[in-house]
Protein backbone atom coordinates (compact mmCIF):
# COMPACT_ATOMS: atom_id res chain seq x y z
CA UNK A 1 0.00 0.00 0.00
CA UNK A 2 1.17 3.51 -0.76
CA UNK A 3 2.09 6.10 1.83
CA UNK A 4 2.95 9.77 1.83
CA UNK A 5 -0.56 11.17 1.88
CA UNK A 6 -0.99 14.72 3.13
CA UNK A 7 -2.39 15.23 6.59
CA UNK A 8 -6.18 15.11 6.60
CA UNK A 9 -8.18 15.86 9.76
CA UNK A 10 -10.73 13.19 8.90
CA UNK A 11 -8.24 10.44 8.13
CA UNK A 12 -5.97 11.22 11.07
CA UNK A 13 -8.52 10.21 13.69
CA UNK A 14 -9.96 7.09 12.07
CA UNK A 15 -7.60 4.85 14.00
CA UNK A 16 -9.39 6.00 17.15
CA UNK A 17 -12.76 4.76 15.96
CA UNK A 18 -14.47 2.16 18.13
CA UNK A 19 -18.10 1.65 19.10
CA UNK A 20 -18.36 5.32 19.96
CA UNK A 21 -19.60 7.52 17.14
CA UNK A 22 -16.64 9.56 15.79
CA UNK A 23 -17.67 13.19 15.66
CA UNK A 24 -15.58 13.99 12.60
CA UNK A 25 -17.22 17.34 12.00
CA UNK A 26 -15.54 18.71 15.11
CA UNK A 27 -12.37 18.67 13.02
CA UNK A 28 -13.92 20.97 10.41
CA UNK A 29 -14.11 24.75 10.83
CA UNK A 30 -17.62 26.07 11.19
CA UNK A 31 -17.12 28.01 7.96
CA UNK A 32 -16.82 24.72 6.07
CA UNK A 33 -20.19 23.43 7.23
CA UNK A 34 -22.65 24.33 4.48
CA UNK A 35 -26.13 25.51 5.28
CA UNK A 36 -28.90 25.20 2.71
CA UNK A 37 -28.09 24.80 -0.97
CA UNK A 38 -25.06 27.10 -1.19
CA UNK A 39 -22.82 24.34 -2.51
CA UNK A 40 -21.75 23.11 -5.92
CA UNK A 41 -19.78 20.08 -7.09
CA UNK A 42 -16.42 21.85 -7.07
CA UNK A 43 -16.94 23.37 -3.63
CA UNK A 44 -18.06 19.98 -2.35
CA UNK A 45 -14.90 18.43 -3.81
CA UNK A 46 -12.66 21.06 -2.23
CA UNK A 47 -14.20 20.77 1.21
CA UNK A 48 -15.17 17.14 1.60
CA UNK A 49 -13.31 14.89 -0.83
CA UNK A 50 -11.50 11.96 0.84
CA UNK A 51 -10.96 9.79 -2.25
CA UNK A 52 -7.27 9.22 -1.44
CA UNK A 53 -8.34 7.42 1.74
CA UNK A 54 -10.97 5.22 0.08
CA UNK A 55 -10.38 1.69 -1.26
CA UNK A 56 -13.08 0.08 -3.39
CA UNK A 57 -13.88 -3.50 -2.42
CA UNK A 58 -15.97 -4.38 -5.45
CA UNK A 59 -17.64 -2.92 -8.50
CA UNK A 60 -20.85 -4.59 -7.38
CA UNK A 61 -23.20 -2.78 -5.01
CA UNK A 62 -24.31 -4.30 -1.70
CA UNK A 63 -27.69 -2.56 -1.89
CA UNK A 64 -29.65 -0.52 -4.36
CA UNK A 65 -32.79 1.53 -4.55
CA UNK A 66 -34.80 3.48 -7.06
CA UNK A 67 -32.36 6.39 -7.04
CA UNK A 68 -28.94 4.96 -6.29
CA UNK A 69 -26.59 2.20 -5.21
CA UNK A 70 -24.62 1.52 -2.04
CA UNK A 71 -21.08 0.13 -2.22
CA UNK A 72 -18.82 -1.29 0.50
CA UNK A 73 -15.39 0.31 0.90
CA UNK A 74 -12.50 0.84 3.30
CA UNK A 75 -11.61 4.23 4.74
CA UNK A 76 -7.92 4.29 5.70
CA UNK A 77 -6.03 6.35 8.25
CA UNK A 78 -3.11 8.58 7.28
CA UNK A 79 -0.55 5.78 7.56
CA UNK A 80 -2.63 3.25 5.59
CA UNK A 81 -2.24 0.86 8.53
CA UNK A 82 -5.80 0.78 9.84
CA UNK A 83 -9.13 1.15 8.15
CA UNK A 84 -12.81 1.39 8.93
CA UNK A 85 -15.56 -0.35 6.99
CA UNK A 86 -17.72 2.26 5.30
CA UNK A 87 -20.43 2.51 2.68
CA UNK A 88 -20.54 4.82 -0.31
CA UNK A 89 -23.92 5.98 -1.57
CA UNK A 90 -23.92 6.81 -5.27
CA UNK A 91 -26.90 8.36 -7.05
CA UNK A 92 -27.98 7.14 -10.45
CA UNK A 93 -29.52 9.18 -13.24
CA UNK A 94 -29.73 9.49 -16.99
CA UNK A 95 -28.09 12.35 -18.84
CA UNK A 96 -31.32 14.33 -18.85
CA UNK A 97 -31.70 13.77 -15.09
CA UNK A 98 -28.17 14.89 -14.23
CA UNK A 99 -29.10 18.33 -12.91
CA UNK A 100 -31.93 16.94 -10.78
CA UNK A 101 -29.68 14.20 -9.37
CA UNK A 102 -26.90 16.70 -8.71
CA UNK A 103 -29.25 19.05 -6.86
CA UNK A 104 -30.54 16.24 -4.65
CA UNK A 105 -27.02 15.00 -3.99
CA UNK A 106 -25.67 18.41 -3.07
CA UNK A 107 -28.64 18.99 -0.78
CA UNK A 108 -27.90 15.75 1.04
CA UNK A 109 -24.22 16.67 1.43
CA UNK A 110 -25.08 20.18 2.62
CA UNK A 111 -27.52 18.94 5.24
CA UNK A 112 -25.68 15.84 6.45
CA UNK A 113 -22.31 17.59 6.86
CA UNK A 114 -24.05 20.10 9.12
CA UNK A 115 -25.14 17.46 11.65
CA UNK A 116 -23.38 15.98 14.68
CA UNK A 117 -25.36 13.78 17.09
CA UNK A 118 -25.09 10.20 18.47
CA UNK A 119 -28.39 9.23 16.84
CA UNK A 120 -27.48 10.63 13.42
CA UNK A 121 -25.23 8.55 11.17
CA UNK A 122 -21.91 10.32 10.64
CA UNK A 123 -21.01 12.02 7.36
CA UNK A 124 -17.34 11.31 6.57
CA UNK A 125 -16.95 13.01 3.21
CA UNK A 126 -17.28 12.32 -0.50
CA UNK A 127 -15.40 10.28 -3.08
CA UNK A 128 -15.30 10.22 -6.88
CA UNK A 129 -14.02 6.65 -7.09
CA UNK A 130 -17.43 5.24 -7.98
CA UNK A 131 -18.36 7.48 -10.89
CA UNK A 132 -18.52 11.07 -12.13
CA UNK A 133 -20.94 12.11 -9.39
CA UNK A 134 -19.65 12.29 -5.81
CA UNK A 135 -20.43 9.31 -3.60
CA UNK A 136 -21.33 10.02 0.03
CA UNK A 137 -19.16 8.16 2.56
CA UNK A 138 -20.60 7.10 5.92
CA UNK A 139 -19.98 4.28 8.44
CA UNK A 140 -21.09 0.75 7.66
CA UNK A 141 -23.98 0.25 10.09
CA UNK A 142 -24.89 -3.39 9.60
CA UNK A 143 -28.11 -3.78 11.53
CA UNK A 144 -31.45 -3.15 9.87
CA UNK A 145 -33.86 -1.64 12.42
CA UNK A 146 -36.64 -4.18 11.89
CA UNK A 147 -34.21 -7.12 11.81
CA UNK A 148 -32.53 -5.95 15.02
CA UNK A 149 -35.77 -5.50 16.95
CA UNK A 150 -37.45 -8.68 15.72
CA UNK A 151 -36.31 -10.71 18.75
CA UNK A 152 -35.40 -7.82 21.06
CA UNK A 153 -38.71 -6.73 22.54
CA UNK A 154 -37.02 -4.97 25.47
CA UNK A 155 -34.96 -2.77 23.15
CA UNK A 156 -37.78 -1.45 20.99
CA UNK A 157 -38.91 1.45 23.15
CA UNK A 158 -35.31 2.46 23.89
CA UNK A 159 -34.48 2.59 20.19
CA UNK A 160 -37.63 4.59 19.47
CA UNK A 161 -36.55 7.04 22.17
CA UNK A 162 -33.14 7.35 20.50
CA UNK A 163 -34.78 8.01 17.14
CA UNK A 164 -36.94 10.66 18.79
CA UNK A 165 -33.78 12.18 20.27
CA UNK A 166 -32.22 12.30 16.81
CA UNK A 167 -35.36 13.89 15.37
CA UNK A 168 -35.44 16.48 18.16
CA UNK A 169 -31.85 17.36 17.32
CA UNK A 170 -32.66 17.70 13.61
CA UNK A 171 -35.57 20.03 14.28
CA UNK A 172 -33.51 22.07 16.74
CA UNK A 173 -31.08 22.58 13.86
CA UNK A 174 -34.01 23.56 11.61
CA UNK A 175 -33.54 20.42 9.53
CA UNK A 176 -36.53 18.52 8.14
CA UNK A 177 -35.69 14.88 7.40
CA UNK A 178 -38.55 14.37 4.98
CA UNK A 179 -38.37 10.58 4.60
CA UNK A 180 -38.43 9.08 8.08
CA UNK A 181 -39.22 5.35 8.05
CA UNK A 182 -37.63 2.13 9.39
CA UNK A 183 -35.54 1.66 6.24
CA UNK A 184 -33.79 4.97 6.98
CA UNK A 185 -32.71 4.02 10.50
CA UNK A 186 -29.88 1.58 11.25
CA UNK A 187 -28.62 0.15 14.54
CA UNK A 188 -24.89 0.20 15.33
CA UNK A 189 -22.87 -2.71 16.68
CA UNK A 190 -23.30 -1.10 20.11
CA UNK A 191 -27.08 -1.10 19.75
CA UNK A 192 -27.50 2.62 19.07
CA UNK A 193 -30.17 3.82 16.62
CA UNK A 194 -28.89 6.16 13.92
CA UNK A 195 -30.94 8.09 11.38
CA UNK A 196 -29.57 8.30 7.86
CA UNK A 197 -30.49 9.15 4.27
CA UNK A 198 -30.86 12.92 4.13
CA UNK A 199 -31.64 13.09 0.42
CA UNK A 200 -34.96 14.71 1.29
CA UNK A 201 -33.51 16.77 4.12
CA UNK A 202 -33.22 20.53 4.01
CA UNK A 203 -32.70 23.52 6.25
CA UNK A 204 -36.19 24.82 7.02
CA UNK A 205 -37.08 28.36 5.98
CA UNK A 206 -40.05 28.42 8.44
CA UNK A 207 -42.52 27.97 5.57
CA UNK A 208 -41.64 24.41 4.63
CA UNK A 209 -40.33 23.48 1.21
CA UNK A 210 -41.43 21.58 -1.84
CA UNK A 211 -39.63 18.71 -3.51
CA UNK A 212 -40.26 15.63 -5.62
CA UNK A 213 -39.52 11.96 -4.86
CA UNK A 214 -41.06 8.50 -4.89
CA UNK A 215 -43.69 8.75 -2.14
CA UNK A 216 -44.94 6.00 0.17
CA UNK A 217 -48.29 6.95 1.72
CA UNK A 218 -47.80 4.53 4.62
CA UNK A 219 -45.36 7.00 6.20
CA UNK A 220 -46.37 10.33 4.66
CA UNK A 221 -48.51 12.97 6.29
CA UNK A 222 -51.65 13.50 4.17
CA UNK A 223 -50.96 17.22 3.74
CA UNK A 224 -47.78 16.27 1.85
CA UNK A 225 -49.55 14.05 -0.70
CA UNK A 226 -48.86 15.28 -4.24
CA UNK A 227 -51.78 16.65 -6.24
CA UNK A 228 -52.78 15.40 -9.67
CA UNK A 229 -51.36 18.47 -11.38
CA UNK A 230 -48.28 18.80 -9.18
CA UNK A 231 -45.87 16.02 -8.18
CA UNK A 232 -44.09 18.19 -5.60
CA UNK A 233 -44.77 17.84 -1.89
CA UNK A 234 -44.54 20.28 1.00
CA UNK A 235 -42.57 19.03 3.98
CA UNK A 236 -42.54 20.50 7.49
CA UNK A 237 -41.47 19.57 11.00
CA UNK A 238 -45.03 18.35 11.63
CA UNK A 239 -44.93 16.04 8.62
CA UNK A 240 -41.77 14.51 10.13
CA UNK A 241 -43.75 13.94 13.33
CA UNK A 242 -46.47 12.10 11.41
CA UNK A 243 -43.84 9.86 9.79
CA UNK A 244 -42.24 9.21 13.18
CA UNK A 245 -45.55 7.90 14.54
CA UNK A 246 -45.78 5.38 11.70
CA UNK A 247 -42.21 4.28 12.32
CA UNK A 248 -42.95 3.94 16.04
CA UNK A 249 -46.02 1.83 15.31
CA UNK A 250 -44.08 -0.56 13.09
CA UNK A 251 -41.15 -0.98 15.48
CA UNK A 252 -43.34 -1.56 18.55
CA UNK A 253 -45.39 -4.21 16.75
CA UNK A 254 -42.27 -5.90 15.38
CA UNK A 255 -41.70 -7.72 12.13
CA UNK A 256 -44.71 -9.86 11.36
CA UNK A 257 -44.62 -11.64 7.99
CA UNK A 258 -47.64 -13.86 7.39
CA UNK A 259 -49.75 -14.98 4.48
CA UNK A 260 -52.41 -12.46 3.56
CA UNK A 261 -56.12 -13.16 4.04
CA UNK A 262 -56.29 -14.79 0.62
CA UNK A 263 -53.34 -17.02 1.51
CA UNK A 264 -51.54 -16.10 -1.70
CA UNK A 265 -48.60 -13.92 -0.63
CA UNK A 266 -46.59 -12.82 2.40
CA UNK A 267 -47.87 -9.66 4.03
CA UNK A 268 -46.01 -7.57 6.60
CA UNK A 269 -48.56 -6.95 9.33
CA UNK A 270 -46.21 -4.60 11.16
CA UNK A 271 -46.47 -1.92 8.48
CA UNK A 272 -48.72 1.11 8.96
CA UNK A 273 -52.21 0.66 7.52
CA UNK A 274 -51.78 -3.11 7.45
CA UNK A 275 -55.48 -3.39 6.59
CA UNK A 276 -55.06 -1.60 3.24
CA UNK A 277 -53.15 -2.67 0.15
CA UNK A 278 -50.69 -0.22 -1.37
CA UNK A 279 -52.87 1.16 -4.16
CA UNK A 280 -54.83 4.28 -5.04
CA UNK A 281 -57.38 3.62 -2.29
CA UNK A 282 -54.73 4.02 0.43
CA UNK A 283 -53.96 7.57 -0.70
CA UNK A 284 -57.63 8.47 -0.68
CA UNK A 285 -58.45 6.88 2.67
CA UNK A 286 -55.48 8.43 4.48
CA UNK A 287 -56.26 11.83 3.00
CA UNK A 288 -59.83 11.51 4.32
CA UNK A 289 -58.58 10.81 7.84
CA UNK A 290 -58.33 7.03 8.12
CA UNK A 291 -55.56 5.82 10.43
CA UNK A 292 -54.17 2.45 11.62
CA UNK A 293 -56.60 0.30 13.64
CA UNK A 294 -55.42 -0.35 17.19
CA UNK A 295 -56.82 -3.89 17.31
CA UNK A 296 -54.55 -4.91 14.42
CA UNK A 297 -51.33 -4.18 16.32
CA UNK A 298 -49.77 -5.82 19.36
CA UNK A 299 -47.39 -4.90 22.17
CA UNK A 300 -48.47 -1.26 22.36
CA UNK A 301 -49.61 0.41 25.59
CA UNK A 302 -52.48 2.87 25.77
CA UNK A 303 -50.07 5.72 26.51
CA UNK A 304 -48.02 4.83 23.46
CA UNK A 305 -51.11 4.62 21.28
CA UNK A 306 -52.37 8.00 22.50
CA UNK A 307 -49.00 9.54 21.68
CA UNK A 308 -49.10 8.11 18.16
CA UNK A 309 -52.67 9.35 17.72
CA UNK A 310 -51.47 12.83 18.58
CA UNK A 311 -48.58 12.54 16.13
CA UNK A 312 -50.78 11.48 13.22
CA UNK A 313 -53.49 14.04 13.95
CA UNK A 314 -55.16 15.30 10.79
CA UNK A 315 -54.34 18.92 11.66
CA UNK A 316 -50.55 19.42 11.58
CA UNK A 317 -50.56 22.20 14.17
CA UNK A 318 -52.22 19.82 16.67
CA UNK A 319 -49.32 17.36 16.53
CA UNK A 320 -46.69 17.45 19.29
CA UNK A 321 -43.18 18.71 18.64
CA UNK A 322 -40.21 16.35 18.45
CA UNK A 323 -39.08 17.71 21.81
CA UNK A 324 -42.42 16.78 23.41
CA UNK A 325 -42.31 13.34 21.79
CA UNK A 326 -38.83 12.64 23.11
CA UNK A 327 -39.91 13.70 26.61
CA UNK A 328 -43.07 11.54 26.56
CA UNK A 329 -41.22 8.45 25.37
CA UNK A 330 -38.47 9.08 27.92
CA UNK A 331 -41.04 9.08 30.73
CA UNK A 332 -42.66 5.95 29.29
CA UNK A 333 -39.23 4.32 29.11
CA UNK A 334 -38.51 5.15 32.75
CA UNK A 335 -41.79 3.54 33.77
CA UNK A 336 -41.03 0.50 31.63
CA UNK A 337 -37.64 -0.01 33.27
CA UNK A 338 -39.18 0.49 36.70
CA UNK A 339 -41.63 -2.34 36.04
CA UNK A 340 -38.88 -4.67 34.84
CA UNK A 341 -36.42 -4.27 37.70
Automatic annotation (TrEMBL):
Domain Protein kinase: residue ranges: 56-337
Keywords of the record: Kinase, Transferase
Molecular-function GO term, any one: ATP binding
Short name of any one Pfam family annotated for the protein: PK_Tyr_Ser-Thr
PANTHER family, per database record: PROTEIN KINASE DOMAIN-CONTAINING PROTEIN, SERINE/THREONINE-PROTEIN KINASE TNNI3K-RELATED
Biological source species: Collybia nuda
Protein name stated in the entry: Kinase-like domain-containing protein
Domain of life of the native organism: Eukaryota
